[in-house]
From TrEMBL:
<dbReference type="InterPro" id="IPR045863">
    <property type="entry name" value="CorA_TM1_TM2"/>
</dbReference>
<keyword id="KW-1133">Transmembrane helix</keyword>
<dbReference type="Pfam" id="PF01544">
    <property type="entry name" value="CorA"/>
</dbReference>
<dbReference type="InterPro" id="IPR045861">
    <property type="entry name" value="CorA_cytoplasmic_dom"/>
</dbReference>
<keyword id="KW-0813">Transport</keyword>
<feature type="transmembrane region" description="Helical">
    <location>
        <begin position="349"/>
        <end position="369"/>
    </location>
</feature>
<protein>
    <submittedName>
        <fullName>Magnesium and cobalt transport protein CorA</fullName>
    </submittedName>
</protein>
<feature type="transmembrane region" description="Helical">
    <location>
        <begin position="318"/>
        <end position="337"/>
    </location>
</feature>
<dbReference type="InterPro" id="IPR002523">
    <property type="entry name" value="MgTranspt_CorA/ZnTranspt_ZntB"/>
</dbReference>
<comment type="similarity">
    <text>Belongs to the CorA metal ion transporter (MIT) (TC 1.A.35) family.</text>
</comment>
<keyword id="KW-0812">Transmembrane</keyword>
<keyword id="KW-0472">Membrane</keyword>
<keyword id="KW-1003">Cell membrane</keyword>
Amino acid sequence: MSMAGNLRKVGGLRRVGSLRKVARLARRTPKVDLSHPARSPLGSAVVNCVTYREGVRESGAGDLVESVRAVRKSADGFVWLGLHEPSEVEFADIAELFDLHPLAVEDAVHAHQRPKVERYGQTLFAVLKTVCYVDHTELTATSEVVDTGEIMVFLGQDFVITVRHGRHGSLGPVRERIEADAEQLAKGPAAVLHAIADSVVDDYLTVIDEVQADIDDVEAAVFAQNGAKADPGRIYQLKRELLELKRAAVPLSRPIQELSGRPFPAVPPEIQAYFRDVSDHLLRAAEQIAAFDELLNSILQAHLAQVTVAQNEDMRKITAWAAIVAVPTMGCGVYGMNFENMPELHWRFGYPLMMSVIAMICFVVYRGFKRNGWL
């Protein structure tokens, strides 16, 4: 039975065996070309598997185990294996081959991790949160603005394993850019980690620019002539989406600082200088996110103040008109009692005079309220 058949059989046992048991089963079967999804026991989880020597990509798709063995035998080059949302069964033999720590493997498979950098022996495990701006024709109270994902990176002296989660954050453009710079790629797996971190942080800045356009639109709507009628749900939605961006970018500052200053076996000093540049860009992104958060708070407070002012204006108008209406109400109430000895009731000019007095008083009261800005 082929290796693919064995792993399908194990998957049908409802994950009864442990990861180590699956790995032992995989070692007893012939090797398969992992770079070809149609023949790979890892199925569609494998995105790419490439060997690099002196910064140059080797042509052809060889066996993963043989590629790793050749790289370690010659002590030259490294292997870059890219995966997308692998399952535990799919990742088991890879974890065994590269001697990855079970805790790091669990984090890589299940995702939803906080940005971090951890060292397990000679292997470095990094988690980066990716972000993507979701295009929309009009911002509403339910619009999705920021979509997040994750990239996990296992870094060793002779290998890089990237595990991507989410609908975006493809590493294809990153691979193309770094392959075009053979001198940088020749510095080893740490150069790949830097290229990934740099791309992730650049995406933060791109999304920040897009979010700023949405904030500008909301700000213009709030401070327009009828700003009190603006939908406050749009402001709350932007704050929620900005929180997603904040959760991705701000916690990454400490891991990047560790990569730029703390010594790691897989990160040479010449690469740490590049991480300091990434740290500067990340600091700029974090500052802009904090500024946006404060700006949205100010916009929300301004909107609430506008609503309060509009309500006060309405109450003053209602009060003013109630005072004007009270004048004829009082006059009609007095002369509507129909007492026998009310001289004005039998006077020829009593009715016209009373109506004239009421009209005059109403006009005077109206002019007073108008002059004071109540009407």
